[in-house]
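name: query_chain
kind: protein
chains: 1
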Amino acid sequence: MLRPRLDRRRFLQRTTALAAGSLAAPCFVPSTALAAPGQPGANDRIGVGYIGAGRRANQLMGLPAEGRIVAAADLDRNRAEAVAKKRNCRAYQDYREMLECGDIDAVFVATPDHWHVLPSIHACQAGKDVYLEKPLSLTIREGRVLVDTVRKHGRVLQTGSQRRSMAGHRLGCELVRNGVAGKIHTVCILNYPSPWECGLPGEPVPQGLDWDRWCGMTEPVPFHPDIFVQRSNPGWISFRPWSGGEMTGTGAHGFDQIQWALEMDHTGPVEIWSEGGKLEPLVYDKPESRSRGDRAMSQGRHVSMRYANGVTIELTDNGPAAGGEFIGEHGKIRIGNNTVDSNPEDLAKVSADSLKIRLPVIDNHIQNWFDAIKSREKPIADVEIGHRSAIVCHLGNIARWVGRKLIWDPEKEIFPGDDEANRYLDRPRRAGYELG
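structure:
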């Protein structure tokens, strides 16, 4: 079993250096958190820090009333300082220093995919609860380590699968669970592209960016802006060292909806196969169309999966991107981006009062996390759920990389007797970034 490790000596060396500069400020409770008429006191509010201060983090800063933004950390010092100025909070370049602060109760982890698990582990070890952006992991093995760490330290982790907190998705999953389309035999979903390989030439590293540390567990490569920005041209989300491509990007939402609707949150497919033999990844070495690369990593490479109960997932070119089309004996239920429709049309128009199976009415994903922090109950997208949904995404990529039918054991989380496929369960980590 891998064991997470927080390298204390490296941590202290780095934070001492930061404290000598102007970026890191001492931990304190700001005056704005003190009790006032109509405003809860500091002890009644949840102090929040952000690990990653880019586009997605800024989208997650509309907190419920009982939350307060305390700090933001980003390897791009300019990003952290911009958030600190706008939100009247502290800035850090090394999140580990931020985790030492007693006025932080919980953190958002909104980093590139290869930086999802290690900061979340460190946050749990520091006694913080976690909101972790999807996909939960870069690899299957590190996802299981994170689940075990959350449970060991008694923390609350909400996966950023926010469609579980949207009315359209909830209704669509309720319709499927209530059998309005009859017994489901097939689910269609978009044929998400797998990641590419990166061969971009180097450019000067922007001032204030710790690029070597940004590369994290992966071997460092020369800086290029088309790597650093998530969905630029194409951005880190398209490259295999740092992501699983759109298979784990938008696919994390779509497969999560399938798991939820089919009541498969604590298991997964048992067979996976891909058309066309082994996928040879496109090497992206000059700026060009992102859509070209996505087509090369998906067209003619349709993936299929089968659950133990016989339900099959088909990745198709016209499948819905953020949900799924559930095909049963009586028709189809199609869950889109917070929408639901059916064929025949009347299947989706059934009265809510007639539905016997109802899912939790949760319309605010962050509020649900806050409520779970206070109650110490599991949130709607608990770490185990996020891990299981991410596994389905990873299985799709592995099937393409191996190029043949695979047998998966969702309990042991291995490909039984298949050394070639099992090599993709995790990735090498460079020194200083090990999980154990």
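note: Residues 1-6, 10-22, 30-42 have pLDDT under 50 and may be disordered.
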